[in-house]
Amino acid sequence: MGIIKEFQDFAVKGNVVDMAVGIIIGGAFGTIVKSLVDDIIMPPIGKMMGNIDFSDLFINLTDIQYDSLDAAREAGAPVIAYGSFINNVISFLIVAWAVFMLVKAMNSLKKKAEEEPAAAPEPPKEQVLLTEIRDLLKARG
């Protein structure tokens, strides 16, 4: 029974829930970045390079010619889809940059919190009263 209790304690902790939320948001962020690369970034780059569609760039490993990557895949032909690879590398770089900036911001906030001096704890009432008595006695002379 000890291992079940240990697992239950682990699964119910806030860190596991936070991690699950992070994974879900990360997955959604990945789809947004993929769309950004495929639909926003690569079309202008392809246009500048002579109307190239990067997602359709491939090396055909057979003697049969195919008009598109989809046609080659549909026929079951072995291909090296380097255009898709380029898109995925760009997506990765964008996600890596975003994670880097997030970690950098978190570290900055953590460092700032560590640099702030901790407020001195309030002294006990007896000490405050003794200090006031001492100050009054000094003032008397």
UniProtKB/TrEMBL annotation:
Subcellular location: Cell inner membrane; Cell membrane
Sorted UniProt keywords: Cell inner membrane, Cell membrane, Ion channel, Ion transport, Membrane, Transmembrane, Transmembrane helix, Transport
Membrane-protein topology: Multi-pass membrane protein
Transmembrane regions listed in the UniProt entry: 12-33, 79-103
Superkingdom to which the source organism belongs: Bacteria
Pfam hit, one: MscL
Family of the protein in this entry: Belongs to the MscL family.
Role noted for this protein: Channel that opens in response to stretch forces in the membrane lipid bilayer. May participate in the regulation of osmotic pressure changes within the cell.
Subunit note: Homopentamer.
Protein known as: Large-conductance mechanosensitive channel
Protein source organism: Hyphococcus aureus
